[in-house]
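Quick entry, no commentary yet.
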Amino acid sequence: MARTVLVGLTLVFTAFPVLAALGFWFLLPDPRALLDAGPGELGALLAGLFAPPALAFLAAAHLLQRRELGLLRDAVARSAEALTLQQQQLGVAIREYRAQTEVLRAQGEIVQEGVRVGRRQIEAIGQHAQETRALRLAAEWNLTVRELTLLLTAMFRLAFGWRRMGGDPDEPTLEEVPLPGPEELALRILRMLPAAPREGWTLEMDPRFARHARRYLEVYERFLARLPRREAAGGGMIDRSFFEASIYGQIHARLSLLPRPAEAEAEPELGAAAD
């Protein structure tokens, strides 16, 4: 718009001196006298013709430039306001991002703490499960040892009886055979049993002793079936090998070598036939 106005004023102010000169030429009574005038007079005439349009053009250019500068200043001010608003929005976004970062960091710490608490709970549960299993296993073993001790007591009474001759040689008396403690009882039964299979074939065994031995094997193997083997237990102490190495496990191993009464009777016949 400003350029259009400036172009229009340029055309007007350019055509005005020409039209004024032509009108002045035709209005003079003797135009040739104007040509005969001196340079000073012609210069004054031309200055009078072109000075007003030039001043008007200069004023119009100044006004147009001032208006454009005002528009440019307003545009710069609006740009500055827009930049200020963007800066404020960017500051708000940065604060929000920082707040979100702090929230995420706090949530991460809470999650990590929850993971640590969960791990501690799992470890505590595992430890409690191991302790519970150990306590249950110890209770079952105590019950098994009591039952095995009763069977060993019956075997001891069958082997050594209830009474024996004692007192002075001149006046012998019957006295009760003392029953040893559980550990000594198991050790005496272990010493009484054969350690090799060949000795078992020549052993004279009471059928009642054989029944007690078979019951001992059943009770011990029933407890042993609840235990894992060493490779399944992960190398722990509480496995089958731990109880198999105990004195009750050794008694079980030696009792398993004993023949049944029918086999004990058949073996001498086979030996006699071989002779």
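second:
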Amino acid sequence: MSPKTLNRACAIARRCGTDAATALLNEGLLSEEAFYKALARRLKTPFLGGSMRLGDGLLYPHSLVIGAAPLAPGSAARVVAAPRGAAVARLIRAAARLEYRPAITTPTCLRQVVFARHGDSIATEASEALEHLRPDWSCRPGPQALDLALVGTVLALLVALVRLPSVIGFILLTLIQALMLALLTFRLAAVGTSVAQLGGPRPVLLTDARLPTYTVLVALYREAAVVPRLVRTLARLDYPVLCSNLT
């Protein structure tokens, strides 16, 4: 790799607040396979492709988070590693002190092997984990307790209106209508207050340099046909471009 390419990666890394290895890969200056093969040569350890066999101690998602997984007995090493970012430099510095050096693979290969091994559990976690972790954020099928309570209240009111004497039913209906009128009045007042506040002093606009940095992450899968239109749409975002990165 030429010094010019390395200098370009370093400049991108400084501008984006990342490391040179990440800049090399994300900017397409070096293929993922070539990078990790070079890392394996640097560590004098085997490079494994997608045909590797993982051991029984594999844990998901921990193996993907740390970028390492145990290999099956009889493999070229005890552990396979796919370090990313600053972990690459840490592994190189620590390699001389390791009793057993890990084999190296790419993060893509490691992810594919882990997904093939735990595909069913990964799919189950992706579809049902939110329901268990944050039920209030999950849109679960079927009626919920609040829905049942509201339906029960409405039915009880209807039964009361039918079975109670006409005077009591009329009073109850009047109270319900008064409540609805109060809610409508409150909403209209809120809208009026918001409109009145719009006439106040205009906020002081920040300069481009003081605006916060945002990352727009757009996930695509088998949607190559929409990429040109998507890129054109993203390019029209009215926000200072501090660092663009298409991967």
